[in-house]
Amino acid sequence: MLWAGPALASDTWFRITDEQGQLIGWQHESVDALPLGRRLTRERVTAFRIKDHPAARLTVRVVREEDLEGRLLGLLAETDRNGSKSRVRLTVAGTTMLVEGERGKARTMRQMLLDPALRLADGEWLSGAPLTGDIAEIEPGTTTIPRGRIERSKAGAEEALLHYRDGEFADAWLVTRDDKGEVQRAEKPLPGGRLVFERSAEPVRATDLSAGRAVASLRFKSPFAISEAALRGHIRYTFRPRAGAPLAIPETAEQRVREQPDGNLRIDVCRACGTGLPDDAERLARWRTPSPWIESDAPELVAAVRAIAGRKVSERTRMRMLGDMARARISRVEFFGHHSARQAWKRRAGDCTEDASLYAALARAAGIPTRVANGLVFMRERYFGSENAFQPHSWVIAHVDGKWESFDISVGSFDSTHIALTLGNGEPGPILAANRKAGLLEWQAMAEVRSR
């Protein structure tokens, strides 16, 4: 989450551990006085390895200079992800800000006017007072400055700081404070796990980190064995949002969401449980058009679907044929990185996110409205060291033959363990948001619903 800067002359360390208590990183925040203001520096280093993944090391360094009244004068944000580096530099002059970006050999530069009503936030500070309300967001590795909002919710000693971007849930922190209001522990929620930041009285040495330290994959161990009949039937889930966080869970043709009097969320999933997404002409037209991650106007995709689009069959049958095409095209499973539909078509590799983006793009190229759903799905087979568990997942929702329906070429077909948490156009934001929502949901109950 985004935080206001701490007071002058401070030096704070946080240890970063996984849910097993293993040290996988550190965050150092410092504030130094300048003749006419102050300099705030934040550096985070994480190093770990997920089973069947290569070792990962990420360094983020943000340096911000402010005047005596706290107004931004300049900012430098640098990232290094396994040797892939990027840099963003902001320079403020009056009401104008120059934004310069570097990623590899690519260079970008643009000027923008500052909105005096918005505060510029620049990263995940854990010391000092939390920044809430409307913000203009600055993120390392990007030259876009989207608008956002930070809201707070609390239940007991635990407080949630919820980050919304362009009106949609984007990220969250869970924090615990001491009597002075200082954050002693902050948690970044993940599906079935967490990253924990704990205040440390001592600096963390770089030699304490090992990129080879294995961490668990993201998953919820299923509380019950799930039969084939239950997969094809109706399953009811009950969750409690942590810290009373007001989480908006989407309803689809297969998913119904109801808030209970005790604050729990009840989610019913079956083939006919939900009412479907909006189907007015304006939105159906929007979900037929290309997007930056679903490039349905790419010549190779348009050419590929031409024969199927012209077939005199039902839209549902056409959707199945397009799924076979997408499945055959992405023939190599690759869990690293995130690629658009066109990139996945060219690379012939990917995981469920690429499957969903390409499938949605082929459908849009054939005139079928689609959206990408992100959430959880049950995997019986062993996957990254775990089995019989709910994993993060993406699939496609399409409007066929006058109604909405879910399609999944990654696990073979849609079933009642598909829990949709966000909807999008294949872009990374809703995928991250789905993972954060999953981490904010405490599993309370799960039951198979049968007709009498």
Automatic annotation (TrEMBL):
InterPro entries assigned: Papain-like_cys_pep_sf, Transglutaminase-like
Q: Which residues form the Transglutaminase-like domain?
A: 344-411
Q: Which organism is it from?
A: Novosphingobium aquae
Question: Which SMART domains does the record associate with it?
Answer: TGc
Q: Gene3D superfamilies in the record, alphabetically?
A: 3.10.620.30
Specify one Pfam family. Answer: Transglut_core
Protein name stated in the entry: Transglutaminase domain-containing protein
